[in-house]
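Supplementary Methods, section 5.1.

A reviewer requested that the exact input to the structure prediction be made available. We therefore reproduce it here, unchanged from the version used in the analyses.
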Amino acid sequence: MGTVFSFDVRGGEPGLVRAALEEAVAELHKVDEVFSTYREDSQLSRLARGELTVEECNPEVGEVLGLCAEAERLSAGWFSTRYAGRLDPTGLVKGWATERAARRLVAAGASGVSLNGGGDVQLFGVPGTHRPWRVGISDPLRPGGLAAVVSAAGADELAVATSGTAERGAHIIDPSTGRSAVTDLVAVTVVGPRLTWVDAWATAAFAMGSREALSWLESLPDIEALLITAGDEVRCTGGLARRLG
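The structure derived from this sequence is encoded token-by-token as follows.
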């Protein structure tokens, strides 16, 4: 998927966990083969060209497109599977794949899992006794610095996803224009139970701009967020403070 994945896995029977880790890695490579927009022979590329129907693709393609349709509905169209005029579910599929791989390790008996997919993180369990997972949020205006630290204390599962311009430039599209989103934001970090959704919500919120995004994110259940504007203003949802530490 053009990025780096890193696993931190704690506990469980070593043989079972190692086998699950190998399966999770293989699964991520398979997702890349199926969903890549850069591979001419991927099922997604062939679907976009009309060479395949959704029914002829792997079942995961229909599952992901269904989730994308739900994300588009819940975001009033700010999340979209169209990029530069072509089918592209990238805004959701990486989070979905990362979450799914992490759940495989939990099912194998791991007591703590942190899976980082290109800076977006899915957490389960704990890394040790009386010690929660913690995720640093990069400061987009101060390279090397942190804007905040998210703690998973008290949560069996938690995900953190960031969308912005600091790492990849202006790559987020405004669905209403089909061009790069022009907003007052430089980064949006969304926190919630499932990376499938927080990944999509971060993308949609960035395209909206800070005022509309903050109000919309506040309306979503179990979701908190941190928004940073180009003017170095920090705006947060009401419950974010209990997730910092």
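The radius of gyration is 18 Å. These observations are discussed further in the main text.
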